[in-house]
Prior knowledge:
The protein is mostly helical. The protein is built from ten helices and no strands.
Amino acid sequence: xxxxxxxxxxxxxxxxxxTARDLRVFRRSLVMNSVRIxxxxxxxxxxxxxxxxxxxxxxxxxxxxxxxxxxSTVMVPGLIGSTMxxxxxxxxxxxxxxxxxxxxxxxxxxxxxxxxQVIGVQKIITxxxxxxxxxxxxxxxxxxxxxxxxxxxxxxxNWPLLIxxxxxGALFAASLGMYLGTVINPRxxxxxxxxxxxxxxxLGCVYFTWDSLSGVRWLxxxxxxxxxxxxxxxxxxxxxxxxxxxxxxVFMLVLVAGSALFSWFAIRTFTRRVTA
Length: 276
């Protein structure tokens, strides 16, 4: 009768140990990881929130869907969300592809005294944590870099909603990353990020609100296939409620259901690849 709690305790300890190991590796290269994570959002806010308004290009105020607010107000939630998704996916796709394609890459983890499915869950959790850390690292950069009069009007209006959106968004991206990492050819990983992730970011409601696409109706419906849209709209709802945004139930349904569905798919394909 006492064996079941002991087994559960052993599983939890093993998962925590593997997670701590992965996060320790991430921490050892924290400086380089931080530079890599922050560089792209920094360049975007530097150009669109500082350089262009400073030279009088007309960019800055009155962005699409902003109701006259600064462009950086629209852009900040989108940059946080896109950074979280890119980092969560990269944190699991690249290491997983190397482990599954290289000799002896995954065997050390498979020998752990836990089911293979638990190892998959641990990988998703670790990647989600790295995505959350990336989102937090970006916040001060996108908030502070702007021209005079172009400061983003950002404030947390709903803490529970913000926490749920960030957690479910990071888990969604991590589980999607694991699924892709177990089904795509290793030689196609770079193609995935070049031909899929870049267009997904450009059309993921990073630089405009979903509601502002109402004038291009076909595109407004087409971008709904992009998971980034729902995370960015969720962050806008929590951080910039003054902007028009997607209905709460829509993005919450997609983020929570997507996290559960892709976690199930990802763990199945991961288990099949490891035990094959």
